[in-house]
Structure formats: structure tokens, C-alpha cells
Write a structure and sequence with these properties.
By secondary structure, the chain is mostly helical. Helix content is 57%, strand content 0%. The chain contains two helices and no strands. The two termini are 25 Å apart.
Length: 74
């Protein structure tokens, strides 16, 4: 399996970088959390809760930046 390819991989997902300073286990946890946040964004938009949707979106982008770019560390 290529780096960045994982079960549930979507074309618009940023790839998982092997050199991001995180262990594979932590990267998997962050990926799972980002998928859950993506669902929460859509759910908040369904209820017209724009403030929550924007907050979840910011959290989602931050996590995906950490996973996708090696210069960010947690």
C-alpha cells in the first residue's frame, strides 16, 4: 500500500506523509478524527449551525495540515 493510501482514502484527502514526526498510530488516529470532523461539518450545515460548522472546518483543516505537511508537529 502506498504512503497516503489507506482504507477509506478519498481523492480530495491530503496524503499521509511518513516524515511528519508522528508515529503511524497517531497518524491513523488523526485521520480517523478528521473523518469524524468532516461528518460533523456536514451535520452542522444540515441544521444551519454555521458557527459550529466553521469551527469544525478549522479543526479539520489544521489536522489535515499536520498529517499532510512534515513541518507541523503536535
Amino acid at each position: 500500500m502506498w504512503p497516503g493510501m489507506y482504507p477509506g482514502y478519498k481523492n480530495d484527502d491530503p496524503p499521509i506523509k511518513a516524515d511528519n514526526g508522528l508515529s503511524l498510530e497517531n497518524t491513523k488516529k488523526l485521520r480517523m478524527l478528521s473523518e469524524m470532523l468532516r461528518e460533523l461539518v456536514f451535520e452542522a450545515l444540515d441544521y444551519d449551525d454555521w458557527k459550529k460548522a466553521k469551527h469544525y472546518e478549522r479543526m479539520l483543516r489544521t489536522i489535515e495540515d499536520v498529517i499532510g505537511h512534515p513541518k507541523y508537529y503536535i
